[in-house]
Amino acid sequence: MNLVEVKxxxxxxxxxxxxxxxxxxxxxRSLPIIVGSNEAQAIALYLEGVDMPRPMTHDLLINVLDSxxxxxxxxxxxxxxxxxxxxxxxxxxxxxGDIIIDSRPSDAIAIALRTMTPIxxxxxxxxxxxxxxxxxxxxxxxxxxxxxxxxxxxAGSVIENLAEALEKAISEEEYEVAARLRxxxxxxxxxSML
Length: 194
Description:
Elements: E1 2-12, E2 17-24, E3 29-35, H1 37-47, H2 57-67, E4 70-81, E5 84-93, E6 97-103, H3 105-115, E7 119-121, H4 123-129, E8 131-132, H5 146-171, H6 175-193
Parallel strand pairs: 4-7
Antiparallel strand pairs: 1-2, 1-7, 2-3, 3-8, 4-5, 5-6
Helix pairs in contact: 1-3, 1-5, 2-3, 5-6
């Protein structure tokens, strides 16, 4: 097991998502995990210590576990299958004992940050997907903040909605509508690149 910390969140253009970089303690290796904009925003808010006026989804889970007198012991990026990471949240309860909860890595990371719980990456995952920080050629992607994420989220969600409408128009063979949707998506993508 490799103890890691969240080093930064960066925009990842190929997937139009965000990369959360988990840096191994006392080592040059890290593990980039691609997450969606909502998940990245939740992680960024916790990193920046921003308290939300109402509980977010991760806060809800933490509140439920607290009500059940359970403690979150650790989160682990446990395995990888077909390029997808799988995480586990280890919970301890005095009446039930230890429980392992299957989780998306983004949710596990957000919960760990909120509860100051250690984050681990299994040896297998680090061997398969970890990168050496010195082998990246010194390129450092620009770190994004929760403010950056909230600005991009609205344009991103519009593009996602248009992309879904485009797929539907193509499947229903409405090619004129599909062409207009495609053009609008291209316009928005160009505007968001500026």
